[in-house]
Specification:
The structure is a single chain. This protein starts with a helix and ends in a 16-residue tail after the last strand. The protein is α+β, with helices and mostly antiparallel strands. It is about 40% helix and about 20% strand. It is flat. The relative contact order is 0.23. It is built from six helices and eight strands, in the order H-H-H-E-H-E-E-E-E-E-E-H-H-E. Strand 5 and strand 6 form a beta hairpin. The strands form two sheets. Strands 3-2-7-1-8 form a five-stranded antiparallel sheet, covered by helices on one side. Keywords: Signal. This is DUF881 domain-containing protein. It holds the Pfam family DUF881.
Length: about 230
């Protein structure tokens, strides 16, 4: 029982979103489409690994006895909620970002990098929403947890193991007024809005009832085995 609880703790002990690679705002260069394909292939391999890890955990639960496994699962469910990984429904905001129209290239001093959504644009919005008290968040429908990453791949974005093209949709459950205020107060969001006003980058904030799917991926568990 103790081993199973500790194992699932390792899977679920997450409290906030993290990002990987890249720190410069709106300066990433476009890359070839085959990079997107490579990232997608990596994502499929990761999903296969996740499925294998889940089967290992289920087998460990079965071998530990049904009563102990049930108790461990209840404990894991509680941890999942604390880790912002469980399914969540409530009031919140939806923020949509989109590339600028090609016509904006005719403006003086404008480069192609100014016209596309970058990793740091999403990071700025996400950080503001966490600061505003978001209870849970998703990007492109992908639930954001401590092991999630948002990374530029040319003029597309990779969220965890999946690659997406704009528009990009961020959903956050929490007090809508507090979340909107946090967006307004964020220096990073203010910079983005200046670009949006000048170049026509997409920016839309909507309020409503949201349902965020439970996180189904792995929490960096590389292997699991029965303690002898």
């Amino acid at each position: 029982m103790v081993f199973i609880v500790l194992l699932i703790c390792g899977l679920l002990m997450a409290t906030s979103a993290q990002t990987s690679e890249g720190t410069r705002l709106r300066t990433e260069a476009s890359t070839l489409p085959d990079i997107v394909k490579e990232r997608s292939d990596q994502g499929r391999k990761l999903e296969e690994s996740v499925a294998e890890q889940r089967r290992t955990v289920e087998e460990l639960q079965r071998r530990s006895g049904s009563d102990e496994a049930d108790e461990a699962q209840k404990f894991a469910d509680a941890l999942a909620a604390e880790a912002r990984a469980a399914e969540l429904t409530g009031e919140g905001v939806t923020v949509t970002l989109d590339d600028a129209p090609r016509e904006s290239m005719n403006l003086p001093g404008v480069s192609v990098n100014d016209l596309v959504i970058h990793q740091q644009d999403l990071e700025g919005v996400m950080n503001a929403l966490w600061a505003g008290g978001a209870k849970g968040m998703s990007v492109q429908g992908q639930r954001i947890v401590a092991t999630s990453s948002v990374q530029c791949v040319g003029n597309t974005l990779r969220v965890s193991s999946q690659v997406y093209s704009p528009p990009y949709v961020i959903e956050a459950v929490g007090d809508p007024d507090a979340l909107r205020q946090a967006l307004s107060d964020s220096p990073a969001v203010q910079v983005y809005q200046q670009y949006a006003e000048r170049l026509g980058l997409g920016w839309k904030v909507e309020t409503g009832t949201l349902t965020l799917d439970a996180y189904e991926g792995a929490f960096d568990l590389s292997q699991a085995k029965v303690k002898q």
